[in-house]
Amino acid sequence: MSRGSEPTLIASVQRALRLLEVVGEHPGGVTAKSLARSTGLALPTTYHLLRTLVHEGYLAKLDDGAFIVGGQVTGLHDAALVQQVRGRIRGLMVELREDLRAAIYLARYHDGEVQVDEIVDSPRAPRVDAWVDFREAAHATAVGKCLLSGLSEDERADHFHRYPPENLTPRTITGLRELVERPEQSLVTDTEEYSLGTACLAARVLGPGSPVTLAISFPARRLATTGQYVLPLRSAAGEISRVLALAGGRAAWT
């Protein structure tokens, strides 16, 4: 397609989408004849498109002959809401990466495991080399510690029973009592406990369901400036908390 030229559009797709829009404007359903009048389509064309949309599940035909929105549209609507939430969260993570020049992580504790759902990095701010699976290294990462801090002591004890703490660097904390009885923390630091030369900072994200955290990783040589990271990180975590609260249960990760 040459620059400035009009895109090639498929008329049948446009017509089908217009039918979906008009059906959606009539909660009680609408007949094929009414749809033809509303859209300006020929009645045979309208019937043909309606049969296709019903077959694919985007419309449903009632016993009285009226058409209503089908289950496929509901699924697309739910998916769109989740994607909008995820897009908004990723946008906040990108802003934080540019602000702090650090790799950004969004993680949650799901079904008894540490799960990193999103990483936003760049050549200037590369992600940490995950040389040990984060699920096995929760004791040594700010991400894991922050997530585990949101659990009960019994739940933390269960986690470490399944994943006994091991020394990953000379700085790794492996004492079970300290790890299990750790007081609840909304901000957690990892100073070269997971990887020498790398430090991490994690803040709690408030949301429905399991614990969620927003974290950053950066070279340990920048530890002296850690104080400059705290406010932006907390602010971004708070904004993500608001996004999740407004989305409610529709923001669940899949």
TrEMBL record:
Alphabetized SMART domains for the sequence: HTH_ICLR
Lineage top rank: taxon: Bacteria
Keyword annotations from UniProtKB, A to Z: DNA-binding, Glycerol metabolism, Transcription, Transcription regulation
Keyword Oxidoreductase: no
Gene Ontology molecular function, alphabetical: DNA binding; DNA-binding transcription factor activity
InterPro entries hit by this protein: GAF-like_dom_sf, HTH_MetabolicPath_Reg, Tscrpt_reg_IclR_C, Tscrpt_reg_IclR_N, WH-like_DNA-bd_sf, WH_DNA-bd_sf
GO biological process: glycerol metabolic process; negative regulation of DNA-templated transcription
Keyword Transcription regulation: yes
Ranges where the HTH iclR-type domain occurs: 10-71
Pfam families named among the record's database cross-references: HTH_IclR, IclR_C
Domain IclR-ED: 72-246
UniProt xrefs under PROSITE patterns: HTH_ICLR (PS51077), ICLR_ED (PS51078)
Reported function: May be an activator protein for the gylABX operon.
Protein's UniProt name: Glycerol operon regulatory protein
Species of provenance: Saccharopolyspora dendranthemae
UniProt lineage: Bacteria, Bacillati, Actinomycetota, Actinomycetes, Pseudonocardiales
